[in-house]
Description:
Order of helices and strands: EEEHEHEHEHEEEEEEEHEHEHEHH
Helix content: 25-40%
Number of domains: 2
Mean pLDDT: 96
Largest sheet: 8 strands, mixed
Distance between the termini: 51 Å
Low-confidence stretches: 327-334
Number of helices: 9
Structural class: alpha/beta
CATH class of the largest domain: Alpha Beta
Strand order of the largest sheet: 4-1-5-6-7-8-11-12
CATH topology of the largest domain: Rossmann fold
CATH architecture of the largest domain: 3-Layer(aba) Sandwich
Amino acid sequence: xxxxxxxxxxxxxxxxxxxxxxxxxxxxxxxxxxxxxxxxxxxxxxxxxxxxxxxxxxxxxxxxxxxxxxxxxxxxxxxxxxxxxxxxxxxxxxxxxxxxxxxxxxxxxxxxxxxxxxxxxxxxxxxxxxxxxxxxxxxxxxxxxxxxxxxxxxxxxxxxxxxxxxxxxxxxxxxxxxxxxxxxxxxxxxxxxxxxxxxxxxxxxxxxxxxxxxxxxxxxxxxxxxxxxxxxxxxxxxxxxxxxxxxxxxxxxxxxxxxxxxxxxxxxxxxxxxxxxxxxxxxxxxxxxxxxxxxxxxxxxxxxxxxxxxxxxxxxxxxxxxxxxxxxxxxxxx
Length: 334
């Protein structure tokens, strides 16, 4: 069935008791030793790093992107599995997906219970991810968890503790896993991959700010003052805030800061319905609505745009492309 490379990055699936709580400290071979390998699959392990995923940085994530590309440069590799902490799995998977140009799959998985748990979910999830990496093609980057396969785009962690921890709240899953089979239910729409970014000398700052009752522009303005090149506004409802926040967004975008607009609501798209500080006004002020992408993945799309270019208008174009919008190519510079 194939040769699969497992890239180990840490997370609960690699965590053990540290005396006061769990933390990632196991190597990839130890994680692999817990799982049954599907018949016909050979596995190679790359120990990239071993950290709890809330500690991941842009440097970690770009290193992962480049490692995936290096692994897939070998035509003898049939697929890639990434073991990852669940807290930021949705962000890393989407970032890898934005640059993924290969029909061979990259399958992210992890666990809700630690490495040594007698009833742990990691072994089954890893088995299923290996099976998916060997069987799936032309589906982009995937998340295999609790017998289900999800597209990276739109998939978020939906429960803090349950084994069934991932889903796209606004869309259907990609496939089911069972009885040694991967049953594909649909194929995700994906924009053309972005060119692979370089490793920046300084990590670009991209912040998230949430709106709420009594919300004001103080935190958004503080992010800009701190040097944020991009800001994700996590608004209420279908993408609404206040006139004061609109004014702060207009000032930020006038200064070349890339502002994306998402919502704190679980499912559904950002939509331009309301004025008096609503999405109608926020978009007019320069914010880019992110459709059904939620905060973490909206930030990843902004990060990809910031990494792509220093030109503010081009950053908007790259962001819209990453969001899956149909946008014309930028005019050639003379």
